[in-house]
Specification:
491 residues; 22 strands; Rossmann fold; single chain; seven-stranded mixed sheet; globular; nine-stranded mixed sheet; 3 domains; alpha/beta
């Protein structure tokens, strides 16, 4: 946090969250001084709360007398996205040097908000629909006293799952990843959150490992006595994976197979695979890999014991994930543009990372063995519309101050990403925004034969040495075996 004693802080919202933030400021005087609340409630305007005046309505922020470096904290966790967007523009025009925001009400467990949870507002807070409100305390009750493993815990989805899991009462939270820096960062962040009173006192255990190492997983999972696995780890950048197809099949497909086998053998109670719309009739190697991961989960579910459940949850793009368009656009705007968009008609389904993770955690508790689930993503959004909104968020005029340049689709991309195949026929469940798909399995022999065909490309076999890392062979085989895919290398 960057607050100093001479900085005046205005808290937007005088409700429970705003009052708790003000209390945090009082306890941590080095962070600055709360000058006033701003609120629209006529019953509060003109009163004081613990000696702090309540001004209002919020749209009067532009006429407040404040200094050049004064800051605002939006403490309105129940407000819809549209209102947050309005408030941000009011504060931005008023000239606040920094605008922070608390997470949504679904992230604030039992009415407890903490200053450490506030972060600088960014475009994902202003884009898309209003996230559904989910009671984390209730949702995570199935994890109380359990040992939970998150693979890819340093990534965008994995790290947010870990933050939310702090509130679940788990006995241990294992943060599994291949990259030491990302695991170090989320481990440090969670410990800071705990020290500031966020969540419960789960024991946090960082684990550096490689899913491609089957022997390691077969040893590790029984040692840790894992109850629940959220499998987020994957290579996922589509154009990069088109250039490295062997790596994505080796890591995503065989890594997932290794983890599933170890989970089955060590009696893991619940296994939730994070999947993607790119697995639907895949046209990229990444999409093929995730489609095969879905099939592996369904295959494993048929071998599960009575107390085990294996399932997958599929959804589209999440706003703000590493390597996604939002941070890319922000970087391009910082350098003066142009902002690059593939095609004027390219559309994607979007959801915020916190909402997607809340729904994944919910599904993990209510989902059944061998079932396939899909998050309701709402309506697709044109990428160019998002680009224009982010340019405006940054204080510029699209097509005038910052150019938008259309560069054409890249290999493995398509203009629209379907969320399901016609055969999967999504149906509503009793849980809002969670849909159930008809599980479409591969015949077991077909799946195992396909894995045997691809195996010598990923793993060196003396009898098939000429196939090891053979990109041409891999792409031709995938084209032959996956009807929707056509990445064959001709000639």
């Amino acid at each position: 946090m960057s607050y100093k004693n001479d900085i005046h802080v205005y808290i937007i919202g005088a409700g429970f969250a705003g009052q708790m933030i003000a209390d945090d400021f009082r306890k941590k005087k080095i962070f600055g001084r709360v000058t006033a609340f701003l609120d629209d409630d006529s019953a509060l305007i003109g009163t004081q709360i613990d000696g702090i005046p309540v001004y209002g309505p919020i749209n009067m922020a532009s006429i407040l007398k404040h200094g050049t470096y004064d800051e605002a904290v939006i403490a309105m966790p129940s407000a819809p996205t549209e209102r947050i967007r309005e408030v941000y523009h009011i504060l931005s025009e008023a000239g606040f040097s920094k605008i922070k925001i608390l997470p949504s009400v679904s992230q604030i467990v039992e009415g407890k908000a903490h200053l450490v949870q506030a972060r600088e507002i960014n475009p994902q807070d202003l884009l898309g629909r209003t996230p559904i409100t989910i009671s984390l305390k209730e949702t995570l009750s199935y994890l109380r006293g359990k040992r939970v493993l998150v693979t890819g815990a340093g990534g965008s989805i994995g790290s947010e799952l870990a933050r939310q899991l702090l509130s679940g009462g788990a006995e241990r939270l294992y943060l599994f990843g291949h990259g030491e820096n990302s695991i170090y960062n989320i481990d440090k962040e969670l410990r800071i959150l705990q020290s500031e009173g966020v969540g419960e006192k789960a024991t946090i255990v960082p684990v550096i490992g490689d899913l491609k190492n089957a022997d390691y997983l077969n040893w590790l999972l029984p040692q840790m006595h894992i109850d629940v696995i959220f499998h987020c780890a994957a290579y996922k950048h589509v154009p990069l994976m088109e250039e490295n197809p062997v790596a994505v099949i080796e890591n995503n497909v065989y890594g997932t197979r290794n983890l599933l086998k170890a989970a089955l053998d060590s009696n893991v109670k619940r296994f939730v695979l994070i999947s993607t719309d790119k697995a639907v009739e895949p046209v990229s190697v990444y999409g093929v890999s995730k489609m095969l991961c879905e099939k592996l989960v369904l295959s494993t579910a048929k071998k599960a014991k009575n107390n085990q459940s294996f399932m997958f949850v599929r959804f589209g793009n999440v706003l703000g994930s590493r390597g996604s368009i939002l941070p890319l656009f922000m970087e391009q705007i910082k350098t003066g543009g142009p902002v690059t968009v593939t095609d004027p008609e390219m559309k994607r389904y979007f959801m915020t990372i916190p909402e997607a993770c809340s729904l994944v955690l919910k599904t993990g508790g209510v989902g059944k063995n061998g079932f396939s689930y899909l998050l309701d993503m709402g309506e697709p959004i044109r990428i160019v519309d998002i680009a224009e909104q982010i340019i405006k968020f940054s204080g510029f005029e699209p097509h005038k101050d910052i150019e938008i340049k259309f560069i054409g689709t890249r290999k493995g991309e398509r203009l629209d990403e379907p969320l399901w195949t016609p055969e999967e026929n999504p149906q509503e469940t009793e849980y809002p925004k969670i849909l159930q798909l008809k599980s479409i399995e591969y015949e077991e022999n077909k799946l195992q034969d396909l894995l045997q065909i691809l195996k010598p490309v990923c793993f060196c076999e003396p009898t098939n040495f000429d196939l090891f890392r053979n990109k041409e062979y891999l792409l031709n085989k995938l084209t032959e075996l996956i009807p929707s895919y056509n990445g064959a290398i001709n000639g």
